[in-house]
Amino acid sequence: MLFLKANRMLLSNDNESAPIRVLVTDTDEESQRNLQEIMGATRDIVLSFQATGVEDTLDYARKSRPNILMLDLGLPDRGATRIIRPVLQEYPDIGVIVLTLHDEKQCLLEYLNLGARGFILKPAVADTTTISVREVFRGGRFVDPLLPHCLVSHYVANPAAPRNQDSARVDVLTIREKEVCRYLASGYTNAEVADVLRISKRTVETHRAAIMSKVGVKSRAQLVHFAIEHGLWPEPEAEHVANTVHLSVAPGE
Description:
The structure is a single chain. The chain folds into two domains: 3-157, Response regulator (Rossmann fold), CATH 3.40.50.2300; 168-242, Winged helix-like DNA-binding domain superfamily/Winged helix DNA-binding domain (Arc Repressor Mutant, subunit A). The chain is built from twelve helices and seven strands. The protein is elongated and about 55 Å long. The chain starts with a strand and ends in an 11-residue tail after the last helix. It is α/β, with parallel strands linked by helices. Helix 2 packs parallel to helix 3 (79-90), helix 8 (175-185) packs across helix 11 (220-229) and helix 9 packs across helix 10 (201-215). Strands 1-3-2-4-5-6-7 form a seven-stranded mixed β-sheet, with helices on both faces. The chain is 47% helix and 13% strand.
């Protein structure tokens, strides 16, 4: 078995200021280096270990109990399934984030049903990665905004999914801002939202700035997560949005 240790020291989460410890299992060396760079640039997340196979992952998980297991869906011989089942059976408090190149519905939903709480599309983007780790560590869920609507909508429809009960952040939004938020979270650009709602692009930009300021988000990924957690994506009157697969972030959007 090949063990790839990160350069940073393994730290324990014995107090609130300790970093979130992440175990990554991925056979792709480029992906490993990418994640190492992303987590190496943060203060609250530490890449404590990198593994490439089932046995070394299970061994490290049992010995060191990481906070997060980031697992490549493309491991050979259904390795991801062989890892996630025993890990969550023995240590249900470990948050599992799936790294995937795939966008096939059943494949992703299988891991959702197995207990994964985060899904990131490879190659991992820094903002998406750090947000997902922090959110899953807090007990929440995260879906990469570039992944299919089917996975996002399944999260929203799943009654067992933890939902943010703090409605105060939603209540500060106007009806129009909530409507704009739904479209933006569905991957629409400012121009596309303007076209659908028959308002000017400048008005959409104003609403978008107001939404992000009011609810305290700074990126499209955070906005998508906010919409999912607060029931703003999708709703019955916005089902036509869910059936249109955008989820692409245009430059500058």
